[in-house]
Q: What sequence folds into this?
């Protein structure tokens, strides 16, 4: 066990855990930031996607010991009132079915648009391919990303 | 105008009771931040007081309305569409409605389960009656107040008005007086042509919570003092736990306790009886140390029954079809004689592997078991079955057990089976504390209730004029065949035979989105495509020819479909997709299927890109009766199509020595963004018939349409799923 200092959604937070603990479980179990989801535990499904210094990363496979000074952003910190353009587009197009994977999808999509404001279909596929949706909302996700890109 | 009785099964389901302490359900504050955000910027104040009009409806003194959604929400959007049906008959402004998930209450609500695409179909009349009764009671209260009759009044968006006067009163203002009104014995339901809300697209009521990550799934449930548990089942079907290094595990950091649990039952009901009733539980405060401790388990397992493998399954299904005794059979005419007469005969075999459900939210449940009660909270498609299973295990009466449903990160049939709830209850009982049990993905993919493995052999005979004169289909499955005796093409061929065969197994299987139908549709619709080709006929024209026979002069006494509606969706997809118009580079396949009371026909447009077949677009024609929430209905069909393409193309679970060979997404492939079609167009038949299922029927036909498009694109027929990796032939 060791003390780790983290920057999460602009806040400084401290936690005493084993260095191998993935950020996913630090967020969920210790900080009660429950928006980030557990899906596979091996960076295959994308449900746990967060931003690490603006990059979309899979928090289930990111040990706390490697994070150091990097800025962590989760869905809870994506916008003040749930009005990030990507969130708005998701609501406008009514993307979700069960909704469980959607936070991860939104985090991947927002990281993509930050770097590439006008992605092509291929860019979207490449950036989003690590996020599985078992309900099959892929077409609406793509539509929402394009709508968000316009705003 | 339809009149319905408010009493069903001699038990009034509309009870008036004192205002419940609104707002908090199952530990989440549903109410927080729930002030309806109307489009015109008008807000309804949060009520100081709530009045329960009936078990579905609660009205606040400000006019804000709470409607309880009785059924589990697994992504099929019933939490929006069921309350819409109540709101329609209640005549309330949808912008003033907030929705809450009702707990399990078998005394009030009926059929509180999510399965078989039945929620809307079975809830239709009850939901409308609840709304209409509420409206009647509010009107009666207003009429009494003003000294008029209810015929003198009308309602618009939650405001009661005098027809010939100027007085108005809001639902919120009169609600307290409606509580005393007697529940009407009979209520009038609206004519469907008068619907204002039903048939309009309304967004998911939980949309904002979903996109902002508000905790609402079972996995998110938290209560102070609650423990976390993980478990380890036997590594193979056919094995049982003997012992494990319990002291070593208990000594690991972050582990409070570790022990063996046995939930085997002599009267298992709808249990996963073959999966592992003996398991190791590890309990602590947080998840990660427990997942680490799991890796340190050294257990002894004993083999208690056969350790099966996939080759064995294939062989046994083949043998069953060849020499087995069918458990279901239908024969019309004389099939043997007809095949002898046939000028052309074609026979093909289709197979599909086991599949896991893979809800994105792994199985989990919260349990708080005390000496005389059990509180269960979590994701279940069958709260009533879970209640019964927990009661059975704890030997406790049903009324001592409460079940609350959370939103679910997918269901697809997996959460119909309550094992994980019983496991959580057993762990809570053992430690004497509230606990949340969480499966890892590997646990989730290894504990069965899989989609069965299937094998079917189809045979058809044509006469010299290319008429279908003989048809036979023999289907086996582990544990039972994916074939139906009375479905299409039953009724269209004079000499028709269907036989279904079972193969015993110790691997647990169960309902998986459109059980049986997804395989039957793929096999039958691919086969008919090949028969049409042999007959030199267009695939749609050939199918319609068969439907003509079923419409004009059906064969046999029982055929489980309406041939006109079936042909109707096929004609619709033909027209909408411009079938027959060839676009260079686009290869098309068609299929139609009827299941869960809904008719769906689909056309797949395929292109070859970088040498690989890609689904570019899918056209769907759907007859599901009245559409409650059109855009959400479209979403369901689109999802079913993508799910169907994905599983038929990529997914399979194989066995070696009783062990599933795929246990996470590195080896078990689900469809991803880049593999999904660019576009799926959905057209609905407008016929005013009471609504039928939507969660499942979109999936089955696409398996056939996909196989048929693959043939057009590659020149090769696809018989064996998954199409992407399995040797065809």
A:
């Amino acid at each position: 066990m060791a003390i780790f200092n983290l920057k999460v959604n602009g806040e400084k937070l401290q936690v005493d855990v084993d260095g191998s603990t993935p950020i996913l479980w630090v967020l969920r179990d210790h900080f009660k930031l429950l928006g980030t989801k557990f899906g596979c535990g091996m960076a295959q499904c994308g449900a746990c996607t967060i931003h690490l210094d603006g990059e979309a990363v899979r928090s289930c496979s990111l040990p706390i010991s490697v994070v150091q000074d990097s800025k962590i952003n989760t869905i809870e910190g994506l916008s003040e009132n749930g009005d990030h353009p990507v969130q708005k587009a998701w609501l406008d197009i009514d993307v979700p079915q069960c909704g469980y994977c959607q936070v991860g999808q939104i985090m991947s999509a927002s990281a993509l648009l930050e770097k590439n404001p006008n992605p092509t279909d291929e860019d979207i596929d490449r950036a989003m391919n690590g996020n599985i949706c078992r309900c099959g909302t892929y077409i609406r996700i793509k539509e929402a990303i394009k709508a968000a890109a316009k705003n | 105008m339809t009149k319905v009785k408010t009493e069903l099964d001699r038990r009034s389901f509309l009870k008036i009771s004192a205002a419940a302490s609104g707002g908090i359900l199952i530990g989440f504050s549903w109410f927080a931040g729930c002030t309806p955000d109307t489009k015109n910027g008008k807000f309804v104040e949060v009520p100081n007081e709530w009045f329960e009009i009936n078990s579905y409806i609660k009205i606040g003194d400000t006019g804000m309305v709470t409607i309880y959604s009785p059924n589990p929400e697994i992504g099929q959007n019933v939490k929006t569409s069921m309350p819409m049906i109540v709101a329609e008959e209640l005549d309330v402004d949808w912008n003033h409605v907030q929705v809450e998930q009702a707990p399990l209450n078998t005394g009030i609500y009926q059929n509180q389960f999510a399965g078989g695409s039945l929620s809307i179909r079975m809830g239709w009349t009850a939901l409308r009656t609840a709304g209409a009764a509420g409206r009647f009671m509010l009107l009666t209260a207003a009429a009494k107040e003003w000294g008029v009759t209810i015929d003198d009044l009308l309602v618009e968006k939650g405001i009661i008005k005098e027809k010939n006067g100027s007085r108005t009163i809001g639902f919120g203002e009169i609600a307290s007086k409606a509580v005393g009104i007697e529940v009407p014995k009979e209520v009038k339901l609206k004519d469907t042509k008068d619907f204002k809300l039903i048939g309009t697209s309304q967004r998911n009521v939980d949309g904002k919570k979903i996109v902002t990550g508000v905790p609402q799934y079972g996995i998110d449930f938290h209560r102070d003092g609650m423990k976390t548990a993980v478990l380890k089942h036997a590594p193979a079907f056919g094995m049982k736990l003997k012992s494990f290094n319990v002291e070593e595990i208990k000594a690991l950091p972050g582990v409070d306790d570790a022990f063996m649990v046995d939930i085997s039952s002599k009267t298992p009901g709808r249990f996963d009886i073959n999966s592992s009733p003996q398991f190791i539980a590890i309990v602590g405060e947080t998840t990660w140390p427990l997942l680490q401790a799991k890796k340190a388990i050294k257990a002894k397992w004993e083999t208690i029954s056969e350790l099966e493998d996939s080759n064995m399954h294939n062989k046994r299904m083949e043998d069953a079809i060849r020499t087995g005794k069918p458990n279901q059979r239908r024969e019309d005419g004389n099939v043997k004689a007809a095949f002898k007469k046939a000028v052309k005969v074609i026979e093909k075999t289709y197979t599909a592997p086991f599949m896991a459900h893979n809800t994105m939210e792994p199985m989990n449940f919260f349990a708080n078991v005390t000496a005389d009660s059990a509180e269960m909270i979590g994701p279940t498609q069958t709260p009533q079955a879970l209640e019964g299973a927990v009661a059975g295990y704890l030997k406790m009466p049903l009324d001592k057990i409460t079940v609350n449903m959370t939103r679910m990160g997918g269901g697809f049939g997996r959460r119909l089976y309550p094992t994980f709830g019983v496991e959580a209850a057993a762990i809570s009982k053992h430690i004497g504390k509230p606990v949340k049990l969480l499966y890892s993905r590997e646990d989730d993919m290894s504990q069965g209730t899989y989609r069965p493995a299937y094998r079917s052999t189809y045979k058809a005979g044509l006469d010299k004029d290319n008429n279908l004169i003989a048809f036979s289909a023999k289907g086996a499955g582990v544990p039972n065949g994916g074939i139906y005796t009375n479905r299409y093409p039953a009724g269209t061929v004079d000499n028709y035979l269907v036989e279904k065969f079972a193969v015993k197994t110790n691997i647990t299987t169960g309902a998986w989105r459109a059980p049986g139908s997804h395989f039957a549709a793929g096999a039958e619709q691919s086969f008919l495509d090949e028969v049409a080709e042999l007959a030199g006929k267009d695939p749609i024209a050939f199918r319609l020819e068969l439907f003509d026979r079923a419409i004009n002069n059906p064969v046999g006494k029982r055929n489980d479909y309406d041939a006109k509606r079936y042909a109707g969706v096929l004609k619709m997809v033909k027209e909408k997709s411009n079938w027959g118009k060839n676009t260079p580079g686009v290869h098309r396949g068609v299929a139609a299927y009827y299941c869960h009371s809904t008719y769906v026909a689909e056309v797949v447009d395929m292109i070859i890109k970088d040498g690989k077949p890609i689904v570019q677009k899918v056209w769907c024609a759907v007859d599901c009766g009245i559409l409650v929430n059109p855009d959400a209905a479209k979403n369901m069909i689109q999802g079913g199509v993508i799910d169907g393409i994905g599983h038929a193309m990529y997914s399979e679970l194989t066995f070696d020595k009783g062990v599933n060979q795929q246990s996470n997404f590195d080896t078990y492939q689900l469809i991803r963004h880049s593999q999904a079609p660019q576009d799926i167009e959905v057209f609905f038949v407008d016929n005013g018939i009471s609504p039928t299922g939507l969660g499942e029927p979109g999936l089955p036909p696409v398996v056939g349409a996909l196989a048929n498009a693959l043939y057009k694109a590659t020149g090769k027929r696809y018989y064996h799923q998954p199409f992407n990796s399995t040797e065809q032939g």
The two ends of chain A are 45 Å apart (CA to CA). Chain A touches chain B through 62 residues (CB under 8 Å). Helices of chain A lie at 23-30, 85-92, 102-115, 121-128, 138-150. Chain A has two domains: 2-77, 85-150.
